[in-house]
Automatic annotation (TrEMBL):
Function: This protein specifically catalyzes the removal of signal peptides from prolipoproteins.
Reactions mediated catalytically: Release of signal peptides from bacterial membrane prolipoproteins. Hydrolyzes -Xaa-Yaa-Zaa-|-(S,diacylglyceryl)Cys-, in which Xaa is hydrophobic (preferably Leu), and Yaa (Ala or Ser) and Zaa (Gly or Ala) have small, neutral side chains
Keyword Cell membrane part of the UniProt annotation: yes
Localization per Swiss-Prot or TrEMBL: Cell membrane
EC class: hydrolase
Keywords: Aspartyl protease, Cell membrane, Hydrolase, Membrane, Protease, Transmembrane, Transmembrane helix
UniProt source species: Kibdelosporangium philippinense
The gene coding this protein: lspA
EC code: 3.4.23.36
InterPro entries (alphabetical): Peptidase_A8
A Pfam family of this chain: Peptidase_A8
Catalytic residues (UniProt): D131, D150
Topology relative to the membrane: Multi-pass membrane protein
This protein's name: Lipoprotein signal peptidase
Length: 187
């Protein structure tokens, strides 16, 4: 049985440019919003916005979402490095626009929070991530305080899960097409 696609069958073009441009745009958005948030909100009481739907405030997070793994910042940094390496490994095989956007969002978020873990206090691999958006109430009362990088990871992850559930593979094939190729008799 052959697992290779038919060499005469045209393959979709690679989508590296989509992934990289998505990652650059959302990484830049994360970086800029953190700089602005720190300049405008540091040392201030939470700022109520959108009728109390959103509160803006600086929270320095040593852990992951929901304050998981507090005190294990170096482990979270290594996980983020692993995510970046895995995405770079997939890059040459990437032929799905949806997967490119999803992976670009995850890459942007991983790098955005990784930059904080490397360059913010208390030091390299131990730095605290700057979060500044709290939903429905201040101080993360109802939902953890987050940033653009966190949002990018969540939205990218959801997109990847949905694409997977719908049978879309990162290499541009559909799961059912892949199964047909794998079960087809070789000549």
């Amino acid at each position: 049985m052959s697992t290779e696609s038919n060499p005469e069958e045209p393959r979709p073009p690679r989508k590296a440019a989509i992934l990289l441009s998505t990652a650059v745009v959302f990484f830049a958005a994360d970086l800029v919003t953190k700089v602005v948030a720190l300049a405008q909100l540091e040392g201030r009481e939470p700022v109520r916005a959108l009728g109390g739907l959103v509160y803006l405030q600086i929270v320095r997070n040593p852990g992951a979402a929901f304050s998981v793994a507090t005190g294990m910042t170096w482990v979270l940094a290594l996980v983020a490095i692993g995510v970046v390496v895995a995405i770079i490994w997939v890059l040459p095989k990437l032929r799905s626009g949806g997967w490119a956007v999803g992976l670009g969002l995850v890459l942007a978020g991983a790098i955005g929070n990784l930059v904080d873990r490397f360059f913010r206090a208390p030091g390299p691999l131990r730095g605290h991530v700057v979060d500044f958006v709290s939903l429905f109430g201040p101080n993360g009362e109802y939902w953890p305080v987050f940033n653009v990088a966190d949002s990018s990871i969540v939205v990218g992850g959801i997109l990847i899960v949905v694409l997977s559930l719908l049978g879309h593979e990162y290499d541009g094939r559909r799961s059912r097409d892949k199964k047909k190729t794998e079960t087809a008799p070789s000549e």
